[in-house]
Design goal:
13% strand; cca-adding enzyme, domain 2; globular; four-stranded mixed sheet; 15 strands; alpha+beta; eight-stranded antiparallel sheet; Beta Polymerase, domain 2; 783 residues
Length: 783
């Protein structure tokens, strides 16, 4: 087939000018750019249609982004040519499509008769949704009106039988693409709360099941479109996932500050859309046309749930005689009933409560606190309830301090939620642990408030402590309980930080924790449960078996110290290490012992003994990494001239290796037959997950002089990689620094590695100048 060369040249040149204006030309804002692109393509397509005599008996229709007038710079053109049995339909189509193909413009196209168009809209849900966005471009207007009217009539008539499929497709899309509001790199188009959800609302409105989306959704739509438009322009191609590396530039162009400001704005917009979809789908389901026997059923009755609260049509609503303007606990009672039953709160009920609910004055009436605790104790069900309260403006009235953390993006890469959602997720996790503490009420409130101090410049734990005192007093807690709640917020990181970064065998470490907690066993118990809930709500893999074991060990030791009991006996590893050391002295060869965990929840341990020489820690760590073992804790020492080390490990994948293979590679590495640097580089190339530039963390070294223990702790924060402990340990050994123990915390793709260094005297002392050199060596190894 021959085509007319250069037919679309003028279109391509005009597009290039719009996207890349020359010197002195104005750069169009995103909304203006979309409008200009739509006008440009409309004009070209109409001119082309006139040139090929597309008049009687045929019509060119735009669907998709062009049909909605939302054309981003590199969006495909979605076009439908409808003809009333014209014999030259194929010629018309080729004359339209080929110039666009030759110009490299993305094109999704179809050619149909009016009957075929209506038939495909009736049988193919995705095609139906596209045709609902149809817009006339060129040709016979009457034919467009006929097809458009028939498609919309078919959609309204068939919505009852297609509604469940529509919802299933939507939920599958959400499951695949996640939430726009909470993903670090959101899919602006297909994620939950994204542009396709707005199209869903439009489709439900076209079926006359709901009203057209209101101004809040329109504002959210505009932001999502503007960000997507700038993302296309920046990338130079179609892209819907907003990467962290692009967000700073886009936020600057849109005048939204930095990428964190953009993330916060997107989160708010997406949550508005997601909530509107939840409400819209429920409303649409209740308004589906009835047929057959269902049309004869009586209207749903109101079933009492609590004082002033009923279930009506599958939703939690206010009773007719509810004292909406007088009962300050009513909003929380409605929320607690929704969480208890798993039913959504009716949108009208939320609106009425927002308009009429009286202020909860300090101190709260006891009934209000009881309802709050009932809500917080309901676990996962409370997440959607609090989201609905927040979207309806009620949650911020209950907790005015919430505004500072609402939609606040995390600064720590390990967190997968915005700060406000993380607080709710932590509370949901804490609800599972209420049977393990003596004060479940304080655990739930503490979980909800533990990060409430974020979003300010000061230490969030310190700020949060003051806010917790303020909130606790307002809730009507006793002075003692307010002190405990404030201490929970102030010290919620104490146990995990100490367990993963300090020597738990050191008496001074225990003394510092016990004194910080004012010798209060109840506070220790609450912080233990909060540490678990907080970690589980942070992200996958954070509450690892080794971290759980370390925190539990620290808590057990602190509890014994508070109660004046003897400390628990350490695990009997000393005898095993002595035996390995004797074997090394007898044979001159390295020895390895592998202690498998008793349950899948526990980490394994590897005991290593080898002739004492510089590089013992790095040598052993390198061999373990070569066998795909992830090291969580490493403790090193000597026994009568033999280097001994204990590693707490877990396999990155598969099973634990054969100890004989570990020993064999240790022997080879010790004798020079195995180059660990080269071997680990090969393994990293073959097995490491690719980490993009946007995912890499610039390594950073922090120094801690622990006054309680006298230890010097070097902390490395950076991006995880295979053999990182080997490289860093080798760098420290080259600097002639002795490592007493190491603890490795992996947080997603990031790590926080702590090394306790022996403070030497004389020229090897860790002076400021020497620390600089050590720090540079570690950063080079981690880079």
């Amino acid at each position: 087939m021959t085509t007319e060369a250069g037919v679309a040249d003028d279109l391509i040149r005009a597009r290039a000018v719009l996207l890349n204006p020359g010197p002195g030309q104005r750069r169009l804002a995103p909304e203006a750019l979309r409008g200009a692109l739509v006008d440009l393509h409309d004009f070209w397509l109409a001119s082309r249609a006139a040139a090929i005599d597309l008049t009687e008996g045929a019509v060119l229709i735009a669907v998709g982004a062009l049909g909605r007038r939302e054309l981003a710079p590199y969006s495909d053109l979605d076009l439908v040519l409808v003809h009333d049995r014209r014999p030259d339909a194929d010629r018309l189509a080729d004359a339209l499509w080929y110039p666009l193909w030759d110009a490299g413009i993305g094109l999704d196209h179809s050619v149909r008769t009016p009957g075929q168009a209506v038939q495909v809209a009736t049988t193919d849900l995705r095609a139906a949704l596209g045709l609902l966005e149809a817009r006339y471009l060129a040709g016979e207007q009457a034919l467009f009106d006929k097809v458009n009217g028939a498609v919309r009539q078919s959609w309204r008539a068939g919505i009852r039988s297609r509604f469940d499929e529509l919802v299933e497709l939507t939920e599958a899309r959400w499951s695949k693409n996640g939430d726009v509001a909470h993903r670090v790199e959101p899919d602006l188009k297909s994620g939950r709360g994204g542009l396709r959800d707005i199209h869903l609302l439009d489709a439900l409105a076209a079926a006359q099941l709901i009203d057209r989306p209101g101004p809040e959704v329109a504002e959210a739509r505009l932001l999502l479109l503007d960000v997507r438009t700038e993302l296309h322009r920046l990338a130079g191609r179609a892209r819907d996932v907003l990467r962290a590396q692009d967000a700073d530039e886009i936020s600057g162009v849109l005048g939204l500050g930095d990428r964190f400001d953009l993330a916060r704005a997107l989160s708010g917009a997406a949550r508005t859309v997601a909530y509107s979809v939840d409400v819209g789908v429920r409303a649409a389901r209740s308004r589906l046309p009835r047929r057959g026997l269902s049309a004869l059923r009586r209207a749903p009755v109101r079933r009492p749930l609590d004082e002033g609260v009923v279930e009506h049509a599958g939703e939690v609503a206010l009773a007719r005689d509810a004292a909406a303007g007088k009962d300050p606990a009513l909003a929380l009672r409605v929320a607690a009933a929704a969480a208890r039953t798993g039913l959504p709160m009716a949108a009208g009920t939320l609106s009425r409560l927002a308009d009429t609910a009286p202020e909860l004055r300090a101190p709260w009436p006891k009934a209000a606190l009881v309802e709050l605790l009932s809500l917080l104790g309901s676990g996962r069900r409370m997440v959607d309830v609090i989201e609905a309260l927040d979207r309806g403006g009620l949650w911020g009235r209950i907790f005015p301090e919430w505004g500072a953390v609402r939609d606040l993006p995390p600064r720590d890469r390990a967190h997968v939620w915005t700060v406000d959602r993380h607080l709710v997720e932590t509370c949901a996790q804490a609800a599972r642990l209420t049977t393990q503490v003596s004060r479940p009420d304080l655990l739930l409130i503490g979980a909800l408030l533990h990060d409430i101090g974020k979003g300010r410049e000061q230490d969030h734990s310190v700020v949060g402590e003051g806010l917790a005192r303020q909130i606790g007093a307002r809730l009507g807690l006793s002075e003692r309980d307010v002190r405990t709640l404030a201490a929970m917020v102030r010290h919620h990181l104490l146990l995990p930080d100490t367990a993963t970064r300090r020597d738990l065998e050191d008496e001074a470490t225990l003394s510092r924790v016990v004194e910080t907690l004012d010798h209060d066993p109840q506070l220790l118990e609450l912080l233990h449960a909060l540490a678990e809930a907080d970690s589980l709500a942070t992200g996958p893999g954070i509450w690892s078996p080794w971290k759980r074991t370390l925190v539990a060990d620290l808590v057990e030791r602190c509890r014994a110290r508070m109660n004046g009991e003897p400390l628990p006996e350490p695990e009997p590893l000393a005898e095993s290490l002595r035996e390995l050391a004797e074997q090394v002295r007898d044979t001159g060869k390295p020895q390895v012992m592998l202690r498998s965990p008793e349950t899948d929840e526990e980490p394994a341990m590897v005991l290593v003994a080898l002739p004492d020489r510089p590089g013992a820690l790095s040598l052993a760590a390198g061999v373990l990494a070569l066998h795909s073992l992830e090291v969580h804790v490493a403790e090193v020492g000597t026994h009568e001239g033999v280097a001994v080390a204990t590693f707490t490990v877990s396999p990155r994948f598969g099973r634990l290796p054969d100890p004989a293979m570990l020993r064999g590679d240790l022997v080879r590495a010790l004798e020079g037959g195995l180059n660990l640097v080269e071997a680990l580089e090969r393994k990293e190339r073959d097995y490491a997950k690719p980490v993009g530039a946007e995912d890499r963390v610039r390594p950073r070294v922090l120094w801690f002089d622990d006054e309680a223990t006298g230890a010097v702790v070097l902390e490395l924060r950076g991006t995880d990689r295979i053999g990182l402990l080997f490289r860093v340990a080798a760098a420290l050994e080259q600097c002639k620094v002795d490592v007493r123990w190491a603890k490795v915390a992996t947080l997603g793709s990031s790590v926080v590695d702590s090394f306790c260094l022996d403070e030497a005297a004389g020229p090897m002392a860790l002076t400021k100048t020497r620390r600089k050199a050590v720090e540079q060596a570690v950063l080079t190894a981690a880079g």
